Each structure stands twice: as C-alpha cells, then as structure tokens.
C-alpha cells in the first residue's frame, strides 16, 4: 500500500482499490451501547483452541452479546466503507487538480448527504476551515470530483465533525496513545453522549504497508462531545500484535478487552478478505466478511 501524500492532521494509507460499497451507511448509537463497548474483562487465556476449523458450525450469538455484536458489525461496515471512499476520493481529487503538497491542506472528512457520501478536502484559509474539493459517491456511479473555485467554509455537522477529528488527534498525541505504524487512518462516526446529545466516535487506526500483514494493535476509538470534550478513549489492544494469514487463509488471534469481537475485527475481516478467528473469555468467534459468529463457546 502506498502512503498518501496529502498533508493532513493524520496521515493515511490507501485500502484496496475497488472494494467500496455502493450503499450509504451511517450509525447513530445510543449511549447505552456506546459505553457498553468500554467493558474491560480479564485477558483471554484460550489462545490455541482445539477446534476443527473446517467443521466448526457458526452458532447463534448468545442473547447477552447480541446487541454488542450487532453494533460491532454495523460499525465495522461503516469504518470499511468510509475508509474505502477516503482512498478513492483522494485519488479522484488529485486527478482533478487538488494540490497534495499545499501547506494549507488540513485533511478530509467523509460526510453523509441524503443521496450520497461526500469526501470533503479541507484547507485552512485565513484562519477558517473550508473545503476546496468535494468528491461525491452516488450509488452505482463512479466518484465525481469537483474543484471549488470559491472554497466552501465548513458549517453545521461538517464543521462539528472536523473539529471532533482534530480534537481526537490532539488528544491522541497529548495522551501518547500507542500507535503501531508511522501512518494512521481516521474514520468519524456520529454517536450520542449519555444525555442523548450529539457526539462523534473518532477511530484512529494504525495502518500497515502490506496487504498480507494484519495489524491488530494500535487502534483506538476516541469519543468527542459536541463541545469538544473527550468523553471516552478506548484502546482495542495494548500492544502491536500483527499476524499473517496461514496457508489456508485463516488467522487466529486472542482478544481480552471485551467478551465478543469488536468493530475492528469486523473491519479487518472486510479489509483483508480473510476469516479472523478470535478467542475471548466466552469462546472462539469468527469475523468473516464483516459478520461476527460464535463457533465454540467456552464450557
């Protein structure tokens, strides 16, 4: 994978070309689900399960985990889609004339419109943030990049999302969150705080330069309130664990920060197009094409 050259608050690398979904996804999460994800349990101990992968049935998700699993699947799909259109949008914007070396460039955001996704490339002009290029993604159509002769100042939700992104990146630097590569991918998903007010979940995802390497560590979710307050910071793994798929295309990894796999496992199974088997204190799970299934419960 090639590092992106566009200057931004956080650098990115591209995902595989042509893997974006044409559907438009967005997740507004209630506080009860948002904060349920922060549950911490003891580390998983069953790291080498006695499991016949070929014969393993995909079982019904236990009721107590069904909401978290459903949320993780939806978030994983959103992260994958937003990350994909960011890459495609960057290529389209540069082809349309966006100057990736402009020192005023400040990154981009992916926003939802009623009929499309829009990647907005942001510059800082006279102390204000404005889009200088918009790339539209309509279902079943190629991306359309439009260079804006008059930059469009960010406002409303677009401005709030961009401010949340900058705040999360600043927090990550100040808090020395563990990143496991020199480049990060960022995805912002709308959410709500405990009082039901608008908030933003900012994903900071460590990126790798090889399609064959799956990086499980260095991924964080920082939830930012509409007033810029850091509501919550959650690290999915506290080390830089990575893995290469076995000859049969499967990957096995231990996970100890939640009873079931997370949105990151869902996203990575989509990103790398391999089934990822995940051992937790509740059993062995598989993330496959974004879906999470229990395959062997702990006795």
Protein described:
The protein has 299 residues and is an alpha+beta fold. It has a domain at 31-37 and 67-243. It contains four helices and 14 strands. It has helices at 31-36, 63-96, 156-175, 263-272; strands at residues 105-113, 116-125, 128-137, 144-153, 184-192, 198-206, 214-215, 219-225, 230-235, 242-243, 251-254, 276-280, 283-288, 291-297. A four-stranded antiparallel β-sheet has the order 1-2-3-4, with helices on both faces. A four-stranded antiparallel β-sheet has the order 5-6-8-9, with helices on both faces. A four-stranded mixed β-sheet has the order 11-12-13-14. The chain starts with 30 loop residues before the first helix and ends with a strand.
């Amino acid at each position: 994978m090639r590092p992106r050259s566009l200057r931004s608050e956080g650098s990115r690398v591209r995902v595989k070309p042509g893997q974006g979904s044409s559907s438009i996804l967005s997740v507004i999460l209630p506080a009860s689900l948002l904060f349920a994800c922060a549950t911490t349990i003891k580390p998983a101990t069953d790291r080498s399960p006695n499991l016949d992968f070929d014969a393993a049935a995909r079982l019904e998700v236990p009721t107590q985990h069904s909401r978290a699993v459903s949320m993780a699947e939806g978030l994983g799909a959103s992260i994958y889609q937003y990350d994909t259109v960011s890459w495609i949008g960057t290529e389209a914007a540069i082809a349309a004339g966006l100057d990736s070396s402009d020192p005023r460039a400040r990154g981009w955001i992916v926003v939802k419109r009623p009929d499309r996704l829009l990647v907005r490339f942001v510059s800082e002009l006279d102390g204000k943030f404005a889009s200088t290029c918009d790339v539209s993604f309509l279902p079943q159509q190629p991306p359309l990049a439009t260079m804006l002769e008059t930059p469009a100042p960010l406002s409303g939700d677009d401005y709030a999302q961009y401010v949340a992104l900058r705040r999360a990146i600043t927090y990550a630097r100040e808090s020395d969150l563990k990143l496991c590569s020199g480049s990060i991918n960022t995805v912002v998903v709308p959410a709500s705080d405990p009082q039901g007010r608008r908030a933003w979940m900012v994903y900071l995802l460590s990126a790798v330069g090889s399609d064959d390497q799956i990086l499980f560590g260095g991924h964080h979710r920082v939830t930012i309130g509409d007033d810029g307050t850091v509501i919550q910071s959650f690290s999915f793994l506290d080390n830089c664990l990575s893995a290469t798929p076995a000859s049969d295309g499967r990957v096995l990894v231990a996970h100890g920060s939640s009873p079931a796999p997370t949105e990151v496992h869902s996203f990575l199974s989509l990103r790398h197009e391999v089934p990822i088997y995940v051992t937790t204190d509740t059993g062995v799970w598989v993330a496959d094409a974004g879906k999470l299934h229990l395959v062997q419960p702990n006795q």
